[in-house]
Amino acid sequence: KWCLLEFCKTFFEADDLKLRLRASHFPFTEPSMEVDVNCSWVDGQLKVGEGDDWMEILGSGMVHPNVIRAGGHDPDKVQGFAFGIGIDRLAMLKYGIPDLRAFFESDLRWLRHYGFSALDVPTLAGGLS
User: Fold this and answer.
1) How does pLDDT run across 56-95, given as a tens digit for each residue?
2) 56: closest CA among 37, 82, 83, 41?
3) Does the keyword Protein biosynthesis apply (predicted)?
């Protein structure tokens, strides 16, 4: 839980972010869970890290023993933790983008509207912001 919370707090730049963990099923992890973040809609704008609404952002769990075996390791000696994030969903949340389809339309006006340059290279410290 700590790893997921710290990742999400850092990514969304929201120290008061709350997570909700829900049991789920994914074929490569056991046990598995889905992770939601608290959010709200204010004047048509999504605000992550505040409010009483929830939005699912990722799935996670302990790596299934069969996956560890398939990797040539003994699951009694080796464990793994995995989480998967829809990068498009995270970008929507971070930058307040209302419609997922816009990512796939190749419209330069859309890129400029959200302040992205097609030639920008993100850094670990600064991202694209």
Assistant:
1) 889 999 999 999 999 999 999 999 999 988 788 778 877 7
2) 37
3) yes
Three-state SS for 44? coil
Contacts for 85-88: CB closer than 8 Å, 24+ residues apart:
85/57, 85/58, 86/57, 86/58
Up-side HSE of residue 121: CA atoms within 13 Å toward CB? Answer: 0
User: Quick check: pTM over 0.85?
Assistant: no
Query: In a 3-state reduction of DSSP, which class is residue 39?
Result: strand
pLDDT for res 34? 95
Q: Which CATH architecture has domain 2-113?
A: 2-Layer Sandwich (3.30)
Distance CA 71, CA 85 (A): 22
Start-end of H helices in the chain: 2-12, 65-70, 87-95, 108-113
